[in-house]
Write a sequence for this structure.
């Protein structure tokens, strides 16, 4: 397993290299540059030219890329052209918020979705199953930003229990409650559907009938035998969601003014902040690779039949 | 039996009556405690994004202005109605058209306790105008040189007369004074820390989250500022800002989407106030490409757009009728300038003369920055033009994608767009931004006037050249009106109604107002929390 993991990690290097070239080209091909954004309609030809020169934008693209790569291999992600601060420092400031939001929302979605999915499957076509399926359909249909605004209106303005938005540094952990509920509730519907589908497949297996025939309790059959063998598809979809969330839940961060990675990346693209775009993309790519590796390794834990070559 | 030290009942009653009279008289004569500014308190202001920088030599964008004007004072400032008022200079004189001598305020200190003198003013202006690290090198007026006459007298010399230089100084937060030698002392923190004589100092800046200002105890205009703290909270989404204001998490919004103003004005504990108008949105035709290289097409579209409806509907009534090119707060504004005419029949007639009709309808792409106000205005324009058979495709873009092809450059990529909706917020660069928009060779001559393949109008260029150097305000005002008339004769753009400066703030905030050119003098603000 460790050899497998090490080999996977080595593959990260060419992945990151290819990704950086692609993103570098894309962001430079986009119309406008940092000077366009910073000076706007107050630009003159002289100030624009001077700023372009000071930002090193006049060099040929391969030269700009080579200079950037030379810094990155020394673990220097450069300086934000807009914020005038080290990219690594800004990422480090934002990542804890994104990580906390990811963990909280995933846990919430599992706490809601898994039991509901199990009950839905074990009482198929019953009232709870119908409620569960209706919930999941409605849940995946509701836009995240709409749900967020609704929660703010209800629980920050109507009944002012939570802050309407803002950072953990301002309000403490309570600042993450409504955003986590927004994201967690949005993903819970998918968890319900995946859990139900996987459970239904497993519940039809012979070993489940055997377990029932042996006189095991319903709880043991459903949660120990059936759920345990249903987790692989669920782990897959949760792993994908974790990867998405770690790159920043932009809509949720926007609605709740949470200074996370999502807003950092979107802002960087809008500002044509080239070092920031590249730095955040690389960072997120490493995270996604690590999450995928963790999911793959978890398969082996969940299913002893899985072997790593 | 009473002693000589005790009062008799009649004496007690008389004393009580006197005391009651004194209390009543005192209460009537003096203002209530609630009306008087009180020192203390903190407010939160929601802003869309961080200033890029507060380094005075770098252009940090519009958010930079909000913060810079609170940290660094200028020599002269702008008053409530756009007039020029003393600031760090108590008076000034101009012995000749290219020399300004400023007599500086005495006893002023920087926030670090160092005294402010003419040497600091010279250092600041030399760095801004000539410093190799300055984004504004050469762009802040025709400054040729500066001179310290004595500790409290400072001179600026221009290379040629500039009748708008003093006005520009009064409105431009980039010209706030910094201490001599600051650049060599700020080290790695030049972009995030700055020392000034202003009412506040920066004490904390967490990028993407908040920027905190604290009261400057050395501020020269004591007892101001009254507030002890201002926190600028980064809240990128305008709807989220509105919710924060309603929830009390934000106290002031500098800009509010038009569509939310009504609900805010009805929300408890919130005041919506408007003060003048200083923003103009206009449709810019790229007159270097078809169909806008045709005067009749441009004139037709101008007649077809009902500006009053746009002001009523898309701006929710927070608008003043469009007149000439200069904003109402500016001395050069001509309130008697005729408003544009809405005449859809005339528009159809002109379109027919240009060769467009039902069989050959006119269609074009209108580019906008992806912003709700622009979307609302563009949608209404689209509907209005549809009534005369013109098809408009509205394309929302991010700011960089919108602007990049519009700047004048020598290569041809600025011919790829047809029409754009852009907003100008007038401030320090009034009126220069007016003629830069139409000046041959100007970077922001988006329409292409007098450029190859663009509309040729030597009269307009001549008027602009004369207005730039005219020192007589009466004559300058007449020139501005002629420039406006020439622009309208060529139908180079379609100007929409002047947008009001509208702010929303919580009722605990007292004495909050905006100056003519979008400056927010928060040193006058105090909070009344009912204590």
């Amino acid at each position: 397993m460790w050899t497998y993991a090490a080999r996977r990690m080595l593959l990260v290097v060419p992945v990151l290299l290819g990704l950086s070239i692609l993103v570098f080209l894309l962001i430079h091909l986009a119309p406008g540059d940092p000077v366009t954004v910073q000076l706007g309609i107050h630009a003159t030809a002289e100030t624009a030219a001077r700023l372009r020169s000071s930002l090193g934008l006049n060099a040929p693209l391969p030269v700009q890329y080579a200079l950037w790569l030379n810094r990155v291999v020394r673990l220097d992600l450069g300086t934000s052209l807009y914020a005038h601060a080290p990219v690594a420092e800004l990422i480090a400031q934002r990542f804890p918020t994104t990580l906390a939001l990811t963990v909280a929302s995933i846990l919430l979605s599992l706490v809601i979705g898994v039991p509901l999915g199990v009950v839905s499957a074990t009482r198929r076509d019953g009232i709870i199953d119908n409620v569960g399926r209706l919930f999941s359909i409605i849940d995946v249909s509701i836009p995240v930003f709409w749900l967020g605004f609704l929660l703010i209106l209800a629980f920050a303005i109507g009944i002012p229990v939570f802050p309407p938005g803002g950072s953990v540094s301002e309000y403490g952990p309570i600042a993450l409650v409504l955003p986590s509920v927004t994201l967690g509730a949005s993903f819970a519907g998918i968890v319900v559907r995946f859990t139900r589908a996987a459970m239904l497949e497993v519940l039809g297996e012979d070993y489940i009938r055997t377990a029932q025939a042996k006189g095991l309790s319903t709880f043991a059959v459903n949660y120990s035998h059936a759920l345990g063998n249903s987790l692989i598809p669920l782990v897959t979809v949760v792993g994908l969601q974790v990867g998405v969330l770690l790159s920043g839940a932009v809509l949720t961060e926007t609605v709740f003014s949470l200074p996370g990675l999502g807003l950092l990346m979107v802002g960087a693209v809008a500002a044509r902040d080239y070092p920031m775009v590249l730095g955040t993309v690389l960072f997120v790519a490493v995270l996604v690779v690590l999450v995928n590796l963790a999911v793959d390794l978890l398969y082996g834990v969940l299913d002893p039949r899985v072997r790593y070559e | 039996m009473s002693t000589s030290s005790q009062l008799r009942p009649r004496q007690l009653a008389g004393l009580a009556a006197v005391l009651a009279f004194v209390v009543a008289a005192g209460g009537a004569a003096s203002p209530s405690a609630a009306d008087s500014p009180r020192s203390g308190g903190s407010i939160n202001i929601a802003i869309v994004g961080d200033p890029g920088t507060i380094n005075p030599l770098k252009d940090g964008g519009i958010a930079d202005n909000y913060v810079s004007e609170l940290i660094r004072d200028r020599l002269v400032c702008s008053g409530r109605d756009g007039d020029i008022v003393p600031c760090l200079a108590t008076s000034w004189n101009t012995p000749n058209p290219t020399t300004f001598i400023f007599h500086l305020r005495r006893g002023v200190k920087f926030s670090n306790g160092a005294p402010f003198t003419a040497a600091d003013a010279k250092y600041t202006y030399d760095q801004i105008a000539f410093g190799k690290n300055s984004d504004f090198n050469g762009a802040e007026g025709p400054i040729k040189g500066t001179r310290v006459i004595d500790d409290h007298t400072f001179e600026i010399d221009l290379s040629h007369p500039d009748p708008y230089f003093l006005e520009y100084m009064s409105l431009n937060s980039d010209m706030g004074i910094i201490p001599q030698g600051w650049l060599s002392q700020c080290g790695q923190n030049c972009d995030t820390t700055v020392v000034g004589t202003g009412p506040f100092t920066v004490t904390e800046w967490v990028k993407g989250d908040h920027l905190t200002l604290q009261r400057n105890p050395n501020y020269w205009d004591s007892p101001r500022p009254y507030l002890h703290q201002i926190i600028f909270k980064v809240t990128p989404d305008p709807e989220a800002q509105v919710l924060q204001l309603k929830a009390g998490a934000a106290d002031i919004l500098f800009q509010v989407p038009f569509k939310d103003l009504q609900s805010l004005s009805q929300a408890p504990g919130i005041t919506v106030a408007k003060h003048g108008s200083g923003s103009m949105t206009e449709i810019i035709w790229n007159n270097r490409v078809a169909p806008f290289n045709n005067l009749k097409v441009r004139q037709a579209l101008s007649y077809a757009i009902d500006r009053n409806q746009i002001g009523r509907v898309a701006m929710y009534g927070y608008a003043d009728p469009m007149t000439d090119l200069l904003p109402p707060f500016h001395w050069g504004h001509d309130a008697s300038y005729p408003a544009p005419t809405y005449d859809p029949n005339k528009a159809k007639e002109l379109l027919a003369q240009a060769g467009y009709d039902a069989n050959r309808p006119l269609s074009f792409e209108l580019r906008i920055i992806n912003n709700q106000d622009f979307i609302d205005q563009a949608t209404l324009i689209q509907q209005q033009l549809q009534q005369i058979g013109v098809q408009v495709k509205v394309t929302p873009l991010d700011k960089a994608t919108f602007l990049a092809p519009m700047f004048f450059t020598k290569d041809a990529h600025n011919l790829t767009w047809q029409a754009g909706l852009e907003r100008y917020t007038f401030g320090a660069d009034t009126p220069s931004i007016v003629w830069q928009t139409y000046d041959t060779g100007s970077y922001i001559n988006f329409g292409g006037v007098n450029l190859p393949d663009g509309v040729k109008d030597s009269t307009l260029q001549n008027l602009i050249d004369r207005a730039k150097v005219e020192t007589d305000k009466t004559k300058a005002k007449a020139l501005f009106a002629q420039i406006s008339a020439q622009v309208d004769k060529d139908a180079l753009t379609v100007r929409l109604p002047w947008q009001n400066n509208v702010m929303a703030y919580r009722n605990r905030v007292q004495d909050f107002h905006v100056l003519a050119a979008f400056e927010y003098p928060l040193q006058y603000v105090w909070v009344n929390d009912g204590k």
Remarks:
- The first strand of chain B starts at residue 42 and ends at 47.
